[in-house]
Amino acid sequence: MSLESWSGGEIPELTRRVACRAFPKGSLAIRLRDSLGQVFDDMLFAAAFPSDGRPAASPGALAMVSVMQYAEGLSDRQAAEAVRARIDWKYLLGLELDDSGFDHSLLARFRARLTAHGLEERVLEAVLETAADQGLLRRGGRQRTDSTRVVADVRLLNRMEFVAETLRAALEALAAAAPDWLEQALAARETDWLGRYGERVDSWHGLPDDQDRDSWLRQVGEDGFHLLTAAWRPDAPDWLRRVPALQTLRRTWVQQYHRDRSGVRAREGEDLPPGHQRLVSPYDTDARYGIKKTTGWTGYWLHLTESCDDDAPRLITDVATACAAEGDSQALPGIHTRLAARELLPAEQLVDSGYVTAGTLVAARQEHGIDLVGPARPVAGGDGHERFGHDHFHIDDALRQAVCPAGQTSISWATTRSSRRTHVPLVQVRFDAAACRTCALRSKCTTAGNGKWGRALTLREPAQRAALQQRRREQDTDAWRERYRPRAGIEATVCQIVHRTHARRSRYRTAAATHLGHCLAATAINLIRIDAWKQGHRPERTRTTHLSRLLTHPSK
User: Fold this and answer.
1) Cα(103)–Cα(137) distance, rounded to whole angstroms?
2) φ, ψ for residue 311 (rounded to 5)?
3) Beta-carbon neighbour count of residue 306 at 10 Å?
4) Pairing mode of beta strands 412-417, 142-151
C-alpha cells in the first residue's frame, strides 16, 4: 500500500456549516480542529508505507481517529462508525458529509505498521511539537514522573496451567500450519494428546485422580520435549522451527525443565530463571510477573512524565512501558534520552523514592543537567530499627579503608560489580569478625546472626555516595519539602489516564503494541488538556469541596 492521503487540507464548506449548526457551543473534536489544525501530517508516517502499490487510507487521519477513540473510550468498530456517522468527527478530519469512512480493520493494520517500523511515539511527539510551537510547552522547566502497573491482555496462570497452555498453543498452531506432519509426530508417542491438551486451560478442571503436581509437570515436560525433538529432526520442514508458538514452547521448556540421562524434571527454586527473564504467558512473551508490596500482576509498568509549570498546561512529555519485574530507577535513563531528543529536558524533575538512587542522582545531573528531586530511602535494619548507614562510617578512598563508628578499621577493600543486569562498579569493604563480635555497638550496626560475620559495606563511587548523603541531609528540611510538594500532582494524571483511557489494562499484546496504546492514551490526555487550557480552565492545586468553597468565599 502506497502513501496517498484521502483527507483534504481544508474543511468542506457544507461540513463546516452543518457542524456549526449542530454544535453551536462546539465539541472536543471541533475545537481541536479549530485551534490545532491538522495535527498529524501523512508524512510523519511515511517510513511505514512503501512508495508503490494501491493507495492507502490517510495515516494522519487514522492517527487522529486512534487518539480520539482513546479520548472517548471507543473500540475500533465504534471509532470507524463515528467517522462514518458523526458530524464533528468529519469536521475534525476534513471529510465531506457523504464520506463513508473506512472499515474498522484498518485501525488494527495501522497500529501493526507503526509497531513494525518503530513509530509508536510519533503520534505523541507530533502533539508535543504542536504545543511547543503554540507556546504551551517549553524546555528547561519543571517536570514530574510517576509509574503505575499495567495488566497484560492475558490470563494470570499458575505454573501447571502455564506449561500446559504453552504446549496446547503450540499444538494448535501446528495443527493449522502443518496438520499432516503433526499427526505423524503425535502418533509416535502413546499419550492422551486430545484429552490433555484438547481444551483451553480456562476450561481445565484440575489433575486426574492418579496424578499429583510433580507427575503432571513431568508428563507435560516429556510431551513437550517429544514435540520439540520431532520438529528439530533433519527430516522436519525447516520453516516449522520458525513458527512463533513453537519458538515460545522451546524458550519455555528451557526455562521450566531439565532433561538428562535420568529423565525430565521440573526446575525448582533458584534453578528457575530470574523474574525479568521468565515467561508467564504463551500469548504475550514480553509480559512479566511483577509485585509491589501486596499487589501482584502480570504485565508491565507505565511511567508517565509531565510538565508542571504554573503558567502552562500540564502535558505528558514522555511515556515509558517497562517490564513489570524492573524497578522505577531503571526507566530513568531512557526517559532522559527521549526528552533530550525532543529538546524537552527539564531543569528539575520531581520523582518518588523509587527513582532515587546514588546512580540516578549523579547521572541525571552530569549527563543531562537535571536536578532529580526525590527522597532517598533511609538505611534501616530488617527489624525496622534505624541502624548505622554509610553516613556513619569514615570512608577514605585514597587509603582504601573505612573506619566504623566504634573506631575499628576495615581489613579488606575489593572492587566488584553489581548484578549481571546493571554491572555497576562497586566496592566491597569488610571488617574483622572478631572485633565486630565483641563490639558494644553491634546491635546498631549489623543483623548478621550468631556472631560469625563482621560488618560489610557495599559502596558506590565517591560522587554517587556524596550525592546520596547530601540528599538524605537536605530532605529533612522544610525548604526541601516545600520544593518537593508539587510532585503529588502527578497522581492526578495517573488517575485521569487510568479512568479516562483505561490504561491500567492493555488492549493489545506484546510490549511494542502496549507501548503504542500508552502513547495514544497519553496523546488523548494531552489534547483534552490543551482544549481545556484554551477554554480558560486552569488546573487547581487540589480538589475543592463544596464546604471549603462555602467557608472560603461565604455568600453575602
Assistant:
1) 36
2) -105, 25
3) 24
4) unpaired
Q: What is the pLDDT of residue 452?
A: 64
Residue 377 to residue 530: CA distance in whole angstroms: 36
Do the beta carbons of residue 103 and residue 52 sit within 8 Å?
Answer: no
Distance CA 274, CA 272 (A): 7
pLDDT in tens, 202-223: 766 666 666 778 888 888 999 9
Q: What is the pLDDT of residues 261-275, one digit of tens each?
A: 888 888 988 888 888
Q: Cβ distance 314 to 489 under 8 Å? A: yes
Which three-class secondary structure state does DSSP give residue 448?
coil
CA distance 176 to 173: 5
Are 500 and 71 in contact, with CB atoms under 8 Å apart? yes
The C-alpha atoms of residue 68 and residue 27 are separated, in whole angstroms, by: 12
Q: What's the rounded Cα separation, in Å, for the pair 95 and 84?
A: 10
How many C-beta atoms lie closer than 10 Å to residue 233's C-beta? 9
**H runs (alpha helix) in 101-243:** 105-116, 122-133, 159-177, 179-187, 193-197, 213-231
Q: Which amino acid is at 211?
A: Q
Task: For residues 464 and 77, give the distance between their C-alpha atoms in angstroms, rounded to a whole number.
Answer: 53
Distance CA 481, CA 409 (A): 37
Question: Which residues have C-beta within 8 Å of that of residue 58, sequence separation ≥ 6?
Answer: 4, 5, 6, 7, 42
What pLDDT, on a 0 to 100 scale, did the predictor assign at position 26?
Answer: 86
CB 325 within 8 A of CB 290: yes
Global confidence as pTM: 0.86
Contact, 92 vs 64, CB < 8 A? yes
With cell 463513508, the residue in question is 100
- Taking only the tens place, the pLDDT of each residue in 336-349 is 999 999 999 999 99
| 3 state DSSP class of 51 | coil
With a pLDDT cut of 70, the percent of the chain lying above it is: 90
